[in-house]
């Protein structure tokens, strides 16, 4: 087309068209791209560098651009999915390396978690150009690829791609194209830190040492082998003195001779780094840095302090009665009772440790006080407290006219001391004494023998006051002589037992709701009937009383299977803890205080009443804009279990303060005072 002056199309228009073409081509400078295979879900192309140089590596990319909401998969797709596959047809003498994957993300779907990518995925593929290639020729590449894309549904797709790349004697001036740079930056880099990894049963741990200073907000290990780890299981993190440890949960797959994968770390600013990991499995790294000697010292001290915690108060009634009966007894008998009680405490702690180890080997996240997360256990313990109270009140005795009492008399005293110790351990678990949490958390990350040793230390610490009587039995002589006052004391001490039973019913109300309370109260009536009937048989020899007692007790036990945790109702409150809520509040620049508690945790309730509801603490939270979040572990929420283990704890309470500057959280003691809280949030202590 010519203009009126006979000239060609105006030069300004040509310049504009040329500029537009350059702008469109700019993102692909130094690269050639195949025709696209498109669907409503994805647009996929094969991209290559602008030239192929004889004897050098030619970089190719399988480029996937995904529609919103759709994702594709990593080398190990996790619980479900399929990694993309590419088959190349190359000129003679050329060879291709393996497909290389970017560092993956996690995609939860119900109880499953997959590993993969959203938005865009760039898979690099190196090709060795033969030295015999002649400049000026064309290096032709044909690729056949398959991939899977998923949203609510998963759809397999495939495509065929071809590239014609000119052979040149030297690299193109724009060979370092932005797309290839971005793809290589998305891949995991060789890790610069020493790595150790090991497994014990269903548990495992991975440790990085020598990390530079600075907080780590999140970390995760993606194993290259599918079926090695439970993809959906949390990986609690412990960061201490430049060492980061991730607790792992094994799946059913075999452990390879060399465990490879990718570790991702997210710092306080949200910057994500990905590192290639390859380690030969060895001894399982401890998930807490506490050495054994220190864990033992903490266990002894924590067990001793546990005697002063509110949970043990009901059992002090039985201890007081036992001590009173020993007044005036022979030294050998005092020593025997002290030894029986100590054995009951220590063996009960060892049994608890063995159960915890078995549950963890099976993949559970059970920790200190875990049994109180089961409504049936809480109900059974409430009934036991009620029966002990009824016995102390005189409704029935532990013996009977048919010689049962006489048969037990000679040995029942020591059996009573033993089971008093066992019961003391059982009811002590809702409480956590200072030093105990660190000892228990460290113990459960150690080899089994060390774990049992630490729990034995807890038992020795708790039994120490009573065990001292075995070493100095003369101290018992300082107590008043047995007399009529003992019967009155015995009846009075029934009321702490009734109080403990009432508190446990309240705990059950938090777990199982009104229906659960109805069941446990019905069971309490049946057991009271059983105690009354047993008393009739003991006092009057009425055989039907024994039969009625047995039938009523069995009827009560039959109610236990009907107790179930009540499902959560309604939406979570703005003050309910979640990892996402903490992240959102910190992104707003707000400080956050986290209180992990449980309805059955007496230590938690005392701390909340004495410290966290203090007027000065509340005023400081308000004036400083501190967000207060509560995590409820009453029914053993897995997310809270993971957070506890991340901070080296295996039971509540746990208190964390996240400052507004994005630094790592401050871990507060298990026993709080208002001053401790005020100092932690930087408000000082009111004068």
In terms of quaternary structure, the protein is single chain
Percent helix: 25-40%
On the 0 to 100 scale, the average pLDDT is 81
What is the structural class?
alpha+beta
Q: Can you count the helices?
A: 17
Task: Give the beta-strand count.
Answer: 24
Count of the domains: 4
Which sheet architecture does the biggest sheet show? 6 strands, antiparallel
Which terms summarize this structure?
single chain; 687 residues; alpha+beta; Immunoglobulin-like; 6-stranded antiparallel sheet; 4-stranded mixed sheet; 17 helices; 24 strands; disordered N terminus
Task: Report on the architecture of this protein.
The protein is α+β, with helices and mostly antiparallel strands and 687 residues long. The chain has 4 domains: 26-186, Immunoglobulin-like, CATH 2.60.40.1250; 190-279, Immunoglobulin-like (Sandwich), CATH 2.60.40; 292-562, no CATH class; 579-680, Glutaredoxin (3-Layer(aba) Sandwich). It contains 17 helices and 24 strands. The strands form 6 sheets. Strands 1, 2, 3, 4, 7 and 10 form a 6-stranded antiparallel beta sheet that branches. A 4-stranded mixed beta sheet has the order 13-20-19-16, with no helix packed on it. A 4-stranded antiparallel beta sheet has the order 14-15-18-17, covered by helices on one side. It is elongated and about 115 Å long. The termini are far apart.
